[in-house]
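RECORD TYPE: protein structure
NAME: GyrI-like small molecule binding domain-containing protein
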Amino acid sequence: MLPGGRFAGATHVGPYGQIGLTAHALLSWCAERRRPVRGPIREVYVSDPATTPPDRLSTHLMIPLEEP
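PREDICTED:
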């Protein structure tokens, strides 16, 4: 079981090898808004890579934030 709480999130659409670009943008968003991060990024794979072309894969990225 993963703990809940407040998260910042983004959806990456594209190949798994490019998820780092979206993760970097999400971490930059947190830093720009002075939102302290309290844990690692979670990845939720929405699309099935067996039936979805790489450029259409969808992955939700979620990063837990410190409570205000």
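COMMENT: The two ends are 23 Å apart (CA to CA).
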